[in-house]
Design goal:
Elements (H helix, E strand, L loop, with lengths): L1 E6 L5 H32 L17 H31 L9 H15 L9 E2 L2 E2 L2 H16 L11 E4 L3 E4 L11 E5 L8 E5 L3 H5 L4 E9 L12 E8 L12 E10 L3 E5 L4 E4 L1 H21 L7 H28 E9 L10 H26 L2 E5 L24 E3 L6 E3 H11 L12 H21 L6 H7 L8 H4 L8
Helix pairs in contact: 1-2, 2-3, 2-4, 3-4, 6-7, 7-8
Bound molecules: zinc ion.
Zinc ion (ZN) binds next to loops.
């Protein structure tokens, strides 16, 4: 597992301008290379990191172009592999999966075969010495295209550079007079045989972690610093192999099968084991929200554009806070608990307590970072992540499956009106989410209505026998009868004698 560590640098403006020139050319080339790769993907069905690049289209040197192509192909492959997973889920959760006939069986095997080997855009595919018929190929192609159209293709407009030793090297200083800096970055520029040398300051975090230094350097523009024609701040980072997961000093982690996680802003993470992590996040966010809103209103009143250096600083502070908090909570959690599988709801970081502006900011960054961090940890600790639909999970009782709006008596309190169970609302939600795993009826692409039907159905399967035998004036029966979620089921439960109308 790789991790990156940023290094402060002491490059002067002239050198920085040379780096910027490389970065601009790099982004241009990345776009062109990506276009060529897509073309070849749709025609031949393949993405090739060794593909020939026509040098006359680019101003970068050949060695840069190769590096750039490696990076572009990596991004595209990972994007395609996400679509591949969706394809598999789509087939496995479709009605085709339940088709018992011989043709249905063959069709789904063929579709999964095409998907597994990434052959959607091939002209001819042979499976077990038999060519797959063209109509199946067409079906696979159309399904895959539809999944592709649901997402934006990766954009290379703002990418940073991931450079290998062909064009960038970090070395210890060779001359004594350069020794005040522990490392120097040697970077090729657009002019052949005219590299520049940039002094780097040690990063104590990188020094403190075990693991090998990799011959990789990343150069990125720090987020949110480029505006109004100003170029932004360049960050130089070095890639390191992460330290091994298990260590003798730390207490042994608890091994669990499946961990449900409820994500929110009041409690950042609640687990199905009953832990509440990252509490009072909202207070800090509210304070930042007030500051940002005040600044924005003030600037609007004066007729100025909202964005300013101060505004960006505040927004950056918010991002950093959220990012650190997500990192801290998730790192801590997975150091203590090692699940085989993590079940999360489709993430939603909105909160009625925050302004619209802040909701938008938090929603965008929070979701990306949470997902990124979780993916990183899943790679590090080797657990699977499954996403399920979040609807009604906060209103459903984990003990008796009863779902009702008034089960949730306040933001943090849960009180089941059917079995009387009282609990903190967030861990209860996490348990409900955990139980929705591997069930097609709770897949994230279902509608809210379908989720409600499934939840109500689950409750009725367990209790309808007992409910239908209840007296007209029984308290429990009145509770269920008065619940609008069960409106469609009243007649079936108590035919001929309903108390309400
Ligand atoms: Zn209950």
């Amino acid at each position: 597992m790789m991790r990156t560590y940023p290094y402060s640098h002491a490059a002067h403006t002239k050198k920085l301008n040379l780096v910027w020139a490389v970065l601009h050319a790099y982004r241009q080339s990345a776009k062109k290379i990506a276009n060529d790769q897509w073309k070849s993907f749709f025609i031949t069905g393949e993405i090739d990191k060794q593909a020939l690049i026509c040098a006359s289209d680019h101003i970068l040197s050949d060695r840069y172009l190769q590096t750039c192509q490696y990076q572009v192909v990596g991004v595209l492959k990972s994007w395609i592999s996400n679509r591949k997973n969706e394809f598999r889920m789509l087939v496995m959760h479709s009605s085709l999966w339940e088709d018992p006939t011989e043709e249905g069986k063959r069709l789904r095997i063929q579709l999964l075969f095409i998907n597994k080997h990434g052959l959607w855009f091939k002209d001819r595919v042979v499976m077990q010495k038999e060519a797959i018929p063209p109509e199946v190929m067409r079906l696979a192609r159309n399904l895959f295209r539809r999944l592709m159209n649901k997402h934006n293709k990766p954009s290379f407009r703002h990418i940073g550079m991931a450079l290998d030793a062909k064009v960038a090297r970090i070395e210890k200083p060779k001359k004594a007079r350069n020794a005040q800096f522990p490392y120097w970055l040697t970077l090729s520029t657009l002019t052949p045989r005219k590299p520049i040398h940039i002094p780097l300051v040690e990063n104590p975090y990188a020094l403190g972690t075990d693991g090998d230094d990799k011959a990789f350097v990343q150069i990125n523009v720090r987020r949110g610093t480029a505006m109004d024609g100003r170029a932004g701040i360049l960050d130089i980072a070095r890639v390191k192999e992460a330290a091994p997961v298990f260590s003798l000093e730390r207490p042994r982690p608890q091994i669990v099968d499946t961990l449900g996680i409820d994500v929110g802003l009041r409690t950042l993470v609640a687990t199905s084991m009953g832990e509440l992590l990252g509490r009072n996040l909202i207070d800090r966010l509210c304070r930042l929200d007030a500051q940002i809103s005040r600044l924005a209103t003030e600037r609007q009143r004066q007729g100025l554009p909202v964005r300013s250096r101060r505004y960006d600083t505040l927004v950056n502070r918010l991002r950093t806070f959220l990012k650190n908090e997500i990192g801290r909570v998730l790192n801590g959690l997975f150091a203590r608990v090692h699940p085989a599988k993590v079940v999360i709801e489709s993430l939603d970081f909105r909160s009625p307590d925050l302004s619209r502006r802040l909701n938008r900011l938090v929603q965008n960054f929070g979701r990306t970072w949470f997902r990124q961090k979780l993916d990183m940890l899943s790679e590090q600790y080797g657990f699977l992540v499954e996403e399920v639909h979040a609807a009604y999970s906060s209103q459903t009782c984990k003990s008796c499956d009863y779902v009702a709006k008034n089960n949730r008596s306040s933001q943090s309190k849960f009180h089941c009106r059917f079995c009387g169970r009282k609990a903190h609302a967030d861990p209860n939600g996490a348990c409900v989410i955990r139980r929705r795993r591997s069930l097609a009826e709770y897949a994230p692409w279902r509608s809210k209505r379908q989720i409600l039907q499934a939840t109500v159905g689950c409750f009725l399967k367990r209790w309808s026998g007992r409910l239908s035998g209840m007296q007209v004036d029984s308290a429990l029966r009145l509770v269920v009868e008065g619940n609008p979620y069960f409106a469609d089921h009243r007649a079936a439960l108590w035919p001929g004698n309903t108390t309400t109308d």
